[in-house]
Structures are given as C-alpha cells and as structure tokens.
C-alpha cells in the first residue's frame, strides 16, 4: 500500500516540477515512474519535454508519440509534439499539433500562444494577431502573447499600439532586452526621440550585451542633435566593440554634423574598411562629407561606387548631379537630376535643380 502511495505522490509532483522549471528533477521522477509503469502517459510526455530541452528531438518525438498512442486526446502531449516538430523545422506539422491541443482543451493558453508565435514567425501577422488576442482573452497578462502581439503591430507599422503592449509588459516587470529594444525602436519610428532616450537610459543594464541597443541609443542622440554626447557614446562603445563598422559610421555622421570634415572622413573610411557587407548609406555619407568639404572629384568616385551597389537609389543620382553642377559639368548634372526624378517621381529638389541647370544649358 505504501508503494502505491509513493507512486501516486511521484505522479503528483511531475506538474509541480515542470511549472517550477525544475527539469532535472522532473527527468528523475519520470524515470522512476517509467521503471514501474513503462506506458505511463504523463511520464512519457514529460520525458519527451526534457529530451527536447536537451535537443534530442528524435528521442523526444518517440516518447511523445508513445504517449499519444496510449492517450490520443492528451492536450499537453500534442502541444509538446508541436514544439518538437517546430524544432525539427516541420512547421506545418507543428501548427497541426498546436491546433489539435486547443481543440481538445479550448482553455490551453500556452498552445494558443504557440500557434500565434509560429504564425508570427511565418510572417502571417493577421492570423497571428487573432490567435494571440484569443490567448489574451484567456490570460490578459500572458507575457509571450503580449510580446508577440506587440511585435505583430510593429511589423505592420502600428507603432502606437505596439508601444501600449510593450509598456504593459514593463508594468508586469517583464523588462527583457527584446522588449526594451523594440519599444525604443517604435518611439524612434514615430520620431519621439525624447521618449526613446528615456528607455535607452533605463534599459542600459538589461541590454548591456546588445550591440544594436547601443547603436540605436547613439542614433537617438544624433536625432536630438546632441552630437558631443553621441560622440562620447560611440567612443565608449568602440572600446567594447572595436570592430563595429556601424559605430564608426555614426561617429563619422556626428563629426559631419559638426562640420569637422577630416574626422568625419576618417571615421567613415574606417567604417567602410570594416564592413562585412557593403552598405550604400556609408558611401552616401562619405560622399556628402567630401562634397561639403569641396572635394567634388573624390565625392563623384564615392557616389559611383554607391551607385554600383544600389543603382536605383534616387539620392545618389541627385547628389551626383550636385557634384557635376559644382564642377561645371552641366550636361552630366542635368542627366543625373533627370535620372533622380525618374527614380522618384515628384522629387521636388530634383525638379528645381533640373530647371536651373537646363536654363543655363538653354534647354526647354
């Protein structure tokens, strides 16, 4: 009788160990149960969960399938199979498994959340939002549902609504680096740089290892025209990340804004030397620095390089027009203003400059 009581106690502790994240203890209990009852459904399911955490996906799937053969209406096993299938890149199978789980248990909030997250990752944002809202009807404080619903809103450029959900997460003390990074990005998309800066300052400790967070913090300072602070920010950043092409680019931009053209040129050229993938914007920035400092010939060469990377970028064509006009090569200036206008219909600056140069060329 004592053995039966102990066995029942083992079974009752499984959910508790799982909910507390005590997976090593959960594994030991599963093995104890399965030694006595090799077909115990819950133990097979939880063993599969542990094997998945160890990235032993084939073994995890085998255990989970065994559980489902014994009890094909076990929602947690279907959800677990969905997770394993997702790890194995079998995404449609994963969706089917999650949907089976919620059909068996319409209150299974984590399975609903998993559907929404997978739909988000598949860029099916409208479907994802619908499912994630269903999750939030079941639990208004479900952190994954809040986060991914906010991400969906961000992806479809509904930044104000995304902000509301990220702020809700912060109210719930979920101040993960991803939440803060996305929140600051939304504020910056809305040109609300002062608000963004507040969260950059508040999030420094949480996001201390996130390179993109510190880059965006510096960009925010640039947009607020706090150039000296931004220079200090990027110089400090480069102590930690000395090979950051982006940091040298924005450091160059700061010096350009301050009209310190030699320092701007030095940092932009350093950015180009460190690029792993060519960025047209760095070349455009360098071209503008060279143009403003009076080196039109070198600016033209840099813009030609930029044009080889992105031939249809209207700003490059327009800036080449400016260089040729200053160099008194009016035919080439007219040609590039016209090309810029073809690339961006109604581009007002190109229209005005084209009229001016064509008047000098006595063209209609």
If you had to describe this structure to a student in words, what would you say it looks like?
- The chain is mostly helical.
- The protein is 78% helix and 0% strand.
- The chain contains 21 helices and no strands.
- It has helices at 2-19, 23-36, 41-53, 57-70, 75-87, 91-104, 109-121, 125-138, 143-155, 159-171, 177-189, 193-202, 211-223, 227-240, 245-257, 261-274, 280-292, 296-309, 314-326, 330-343, 348-360.
- The longest helix has 18 residues, at 2-19.
- The radius of gyration is 29 Å and the shape is elongated.
- The model has no long low-confidence stretch (mean pLDDT 94).
Structural topology:
Layout: H1 2-19, H2 23-36, H3 41-53, H4 57-70, H5 75-87, H6 91-104, H7 109-121, H8 125-138, H9 143-155, H10 159-171, H11 177-189, H12 193-202, H13 211-223, H14 227-240, H15 245-257, H16 261-274, H17 280-292, H18 296-309, H19 314-326, H20 330-343, H21 348-360
Helix pairs in contact: 1-2, 2-3, 3-4, 3-5, 4-5, 5-6, 5-7, 6-7, 7-8, 7-9, 8-9, 9-10, 10-11, 11-12, 11-13, 12-13, 13-14, 13-15, 14-15, 15-16, 15-17, 16-17, 17-18, 17-19, 18-19, 19-20, 20-21
Offer a few descriptive terms.
78% helix; 364 residues; mainly alpha
The coarse silhouette is elongated
**Total number of helices:** 21
Write down how many β-strands occur, each being a DSSP E stretch of 2 or more residues: 0
- Estimated helix fraction: over 70%
Rg on CA atoms, Å = 29 Å
List the uncertain runs: none
Label the structural class: mainly alpha
Topology as a string of helices (H) and strands (E):
HHHHHHHHHHHHHHHHHHHHH
**Would you tell me the overall average pLDDT?**
94
Give the distance, in angstroms, between the N- and C-terminal Cα atoms.
Answer: 104 Å
Major β-sheet profile:
none
């Amino acid at each position: 009788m004592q053995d039966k009581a102990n066995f029942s106690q083992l079974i009752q502790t499984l959910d508790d160990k799982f909910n507390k994240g005590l997976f090593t203890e959960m594994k030991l209990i599963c093995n104890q149960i399965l030694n006595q009852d090799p077909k115990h459904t819950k133990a097979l399911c939880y063993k599969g969960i542990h094997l998945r955490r160890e990235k032993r996906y084939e073994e995890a799937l085998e255990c989970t399938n065994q559980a489902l053969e014994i009890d094909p209406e076990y929602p947690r096993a279907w959800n677990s199979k969905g997770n394993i299938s997702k790890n194995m890149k079998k995404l449609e199978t994963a969706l089917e498994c999650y949907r089976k789980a919620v059909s068996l248990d319409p209150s299974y909030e984590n399975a609903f959340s998993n559907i929404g997250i997978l739909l988000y990752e598949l860029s099916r944002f409208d479907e994802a939002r619908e499912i994630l809202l269903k999750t939030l009807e079941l639990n208004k404080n479900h952190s994954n549902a809040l986060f991914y619903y906010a991400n969906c809103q961000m992806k479809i450029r509904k930044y104000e609504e995304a902000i509301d959900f990220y702020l809700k997460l912060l109210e719930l003390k979920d101040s993960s680096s991803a939440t803060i990074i996305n929140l600051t990005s939304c504020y910056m998309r809305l040109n609300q740089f002062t608000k963004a800066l507040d969260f950059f300052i508040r999030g420094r400790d949480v996001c201390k290892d996130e390179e993109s967070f510190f880059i965006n913090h510096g960009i925010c300072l640039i947009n607020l025209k706090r150039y000296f602070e931004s220079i200090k920010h990027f110089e400090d950043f480069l102590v930690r990340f000395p090979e950051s092409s982006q940091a040298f680019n924005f450091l160059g931009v700061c010096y350009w804004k301050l009209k310190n053209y030699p320092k701007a040129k030095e940092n932009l050229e350093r950015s180009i030397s460190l690029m792993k993938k060519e960025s047209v914007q760095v070349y455009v920035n360098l071209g503008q620095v060279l143009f403003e400092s009076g080196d039109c010939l070198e600016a033209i060469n840099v813009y030609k390089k930029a044009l080889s990377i992105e031939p249809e970028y209207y700003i490059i064509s327009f800036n080449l027009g400016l260089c040729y006009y200053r160099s008194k090569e009016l035919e080439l200036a007219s040609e590039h203003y016209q090309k810029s206008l073809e690339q961006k219909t109604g581009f007002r600056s190109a229209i005005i400059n084209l009229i001016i140069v064509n008047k000098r060329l006595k063209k209609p």
